[in-house]
Amino acid sequence: MAADIGVTGLAVMGANLARNLARNGYTVALHNRTAAKTDALINSYSSEGEFVRTESLAELVGALQRPRRVLIMVKAGAPVDAVIDELVPLLDEGDIVIDAGNSFFEETRRREETLRGHGLHFVGVGVSGGEEGALHGPSIMPGGSRESYETLGPMLEKIAADYHGEPCCAWVGTDGAGHYVKMVHNGIEYADMQVIGEAYDLMRQLAGLEPAEQAAVFREWNTTDLASYLIEITSEVLEQEDELTGRPLVDVIVDAAGQKGTGRWTAISGLEVGSPVTTIAESVFARSISSQQQLRRITRDAFAAGVGSPVPADELYGSGEARQSFVEDIRKALYASKLVSYAQGFDMLTAAGAEYGWDLDMRTIASLWRAGCIIRADLLDTIMKAYQHADERPANLLLAPEFTEAINECLPAWRRVVAAAATYGVPAPVFSSSLAYYDSLRAERLPASLTQGLRDYFGAHTYQRVDKPGTFHIRWSEDRTEAEV
Ligand code: 6PG
User: Fold this and answer.
1) pLDDT at 284 over 60
2) Rounded to the nearest whole angstrom, what is the distance from the C-alpha of residue 305 to the centroid of ligand 1?
C-alpha cells in the first residue's frame, strides 16, 4: 500500500509526529539514518496504525503516493540541507518537502527558492508543544506555497491540537513565514518564562515566600487573567522536591539558563526589521547573564556590600497584609510585562510581513497559539478579538481597549514592583524594560531630540524641526547658525 506521507528523522519529535499521523489514520513510511530507530518505533507502536519500514531515502520516496509528501525532522542547519540534497533528485514535480524542525526562517526562504526551481514545494512548518504536543496535537504553523497547503493542510489540521473544535493549524504565509511565526512564538516563550522567573525571585527574596508556598500562589494566579500553560507548570516545578537532598528542586538546579537560538534569532530579527522587541531581547540577555557563572561569582565577591535601602525588605513585604498586597502587585507587574511581550511579538510580525511580503493575519496567528503550544494562554482569545476587524486593527496591541484598560489597572503596581526591585537590588530586567517600553511609547517628548543634536554636532547628521518641514544642520564649528540642507 502506498503511504500517505514519509517521515525521515525519528528522534523523539519525528517519531512522535509519525505516530500522531498514524494514529489519525494515515499510512506513514518511516526512515532514519540508522535503521535501529525505525525498528524500535515499529516494534513498540505498530498497533497504533500503518507504518512502512524503509532503509534509504530512495526506498522512502518509492513507498509514497503522489504528490509525495516527505517530512524532515532532523537537527536544524546543515543536516536539513544534507537530507534535501539527497531527496531532490529522487522527487518529481509537485512533490512536497516539509521541514518541521526549528529552522532559521532565512534558510527556509533560501531552500524554498531552490526547490521551487526544481518544481518542488518546500514547506517550512513551525511546530510547538514539545514531545507531548507532537504526539497528542501540537500547534502547527505552516509556510510555503498556498498550493502545497491544499494537499498538506488537511493532514496537518488533523494531527494538530484542537481548541474547542478548531484545529491549531493554518497556513500563515509563503516561504519562511511558518518558521518566522514559530520563531516569534519562541521569543514570546522566552519572555513568558523570564517574567515568571522575575516574579518568583521577587516573591522569594523580598517577601520570603518559599518555593512550595509559591506553588500555591501560581496555582491561584492560574485562575486569573494570567491563566496559561507556563503558569500552570510553574507550580509543578516549584513544588517538586529534590529526591537526593529533600530541598526544593529549584534550589539544586544550576541557575544558568540554556538556549538553542530561537530567542536570539527573534531579538536579531527585531533589530533587522526595525521593531523594538526590548522585552524579548532582554529575556535572551537574562539567559546569557545567568550563564556567565564565573563572572557572576567574581562580581558578587567584589561588590559584597549591601544594597543600601533604609528599611529591610522583610519588614516591608515579609508578612501579613503587606506581603499579600506585594504578591498581588507582582502578579500585576507580571501581567503587564507579559502584555508588552505579546505586543512586541505582534509588532515585529507586522514589520516582518511588510519586509518579506507576507500577508500575515494576526488573528489567525493568535488562534494557532491557543492550544498545543508552549505559550498557550487565555489571553490569546482577547488578542484574537483585538484583531477581529481588519479595518480597526490596533497600531499596537497595548492600544486594544481591553489591554489599555488592563495596563492602566496594573500600572501603579507595576511601578511599585520595579521600584522595589531597584531599591533592594533584585534584578528584574524584563519587568523594568517592559515598563520603559510602555513609558517610551506614551512619552510626550523623548530625549531623542538631544541625540539628534549630538549627532549633528559631531557628524553633521542633520535633524528635522518640530515647527517646519525640511532638514537642518547647525554650523557648529563656524558661527553656529542654522542651515537648511
Ligand atoms: C516549543 C518549544 C521548543 C523548544 C525550543 C526552545 O514550542 O515546543 O519552543 O521548540 O523548547 O527549542 O528551546 P530553548 O529554550 O533551548 O532555546
Assistant:
1) yes
2) 38
